[in-house]
Amino acid sequence: MSQCLSCVHCGAEYDIRKIRYVCDCGGVLDVKHDLSKLDGAKLVELWERRWGAKRGIEASGVWRYRELMFDVHDEFIATKPEGNTRLYPGGKAAEFAGLPRLLLKHEGENPTGSFKDRGMTCGMTAALMFNSKSVACASTGNTSASMAAYAASRGLPAVIFIPSGKIAYGKLAQALAYGGLTLQIDGNFDDAMALVREVCDEMGIYLLNSINPFRIEGQKAIVFETLQQLDWRVPDWFVPGGKLGNNSALSKGLMELHELGIIDKIPRIAVIQAEGANPLYKMWRDKTEYQPVRDPDTIATAIKIGDPVSWEKSIRGLEWSDGIVEQVTEQEIMDAKAMVDAAGIGAEPASCCCVAGAKKLAEAGVIPKDADVVGILTGNILKDPDAVIGYHQDTLEDRNIKGTYANTPISIKPELEAVKNVLVEKALEKL
Known about the structure:
A hairpin with a 5-residue loop joins β1 and β2. The chain has 15 helices and 13 strands. By secondary structure, the chain is of the alpha/beta class. It has helices at 40-50, 92-97, 116-129, 142-154, 169-177, 189-203, 213-219, 221-229, 245-259, 279-286, 311-320, 330-342, 353-363, 385-392, 416-425; strands at residues 3-7, 13-14, 29-33, 87-89, 102-106, 135-138, 158-163, 181-185, 206-207, 237-239, 268-274, 324-328, 373-377. The strands form three sheets. Strands 4-5-13-10-11-12 form a six-stranded mixed β-sheet, sandwiched between helices. α8 packs across α9 (245-259).
């Protein structure tokens, strides 16, 4: 068959038309394509013709590349459309990182404000293809917001399992607004993930976490679109943060482009984890067996996950790309975020791990100062407003985070002289 589900661990293959999330051996699955049937040069010509489509399926920054997604009839495709996000010069963030050629791909410009929409268009499409009557996920925020929105657009009930008290309000608000049935459980994300898998197996609900092999297919379009924006010129480094699904998707997409001859250079990949949720970093640093982090904790709520399901796919991509794993502290995350925001781009804390990590690797001499680097910003600045306000008001003492670059509001009397005094003090009197 031209497409099948293939186990990353043992290589076993399964029928892509039957619902399956993991291999019989317990390994995670990929959508495997027979690339011998495709012509890379003709694909690029086709994708260039589709660029800028105003309406329809091919207006999507995922389904534009449908030849490398999965075979499905048009009526099942659930698209908003997603993708078509901007690639920004790093500005102040590039100066901060010491990498003048840093570019930032802003996935927070997707319909629900995060890169999850890229995976969700494929996941929801698979749900419709399988004639599923309802969908579910465990989430620290972005996945639930995306799933609830896509489910609502196609009239499917959505069930969301979230860790109690451990989700940013900006994301929870979306899940509630889009009509998702939201269940707060007493536990962390990994507990919620174990429960949702059990519920889906028992009740026949379609599971839409990253363990779903179709989700990664949509997310890999990030790298397709980035390279198309660069006229297929390959940067030296890609720097994703996140909970490893993004790195898995980026490397899978790069592998496919390389096999097709669309690119002839393999960029290096640096995966950046938060110090409080760093199982891959510990494995990489210590050269030990993978071990989950039991009680992960970080202000970067989107990556507050101690047992990411995509770790084995992530290792595969790192080995292929001669990649590296780094960790960053809470302070490093929030200072990098302040610089991304000050560049007029703006992103949630988890996104800014990529800039914090790139800075750390540049200072260590791992990433050369003149390297072409693309960082992936995964979520919109408004996803976690409490973290933004806390940093700029310097009230994050409980996390030992200082507002190093705080832009604190100034209280004044409602008088012209009071305004003048502040402007003089800030050297803005000639505005």
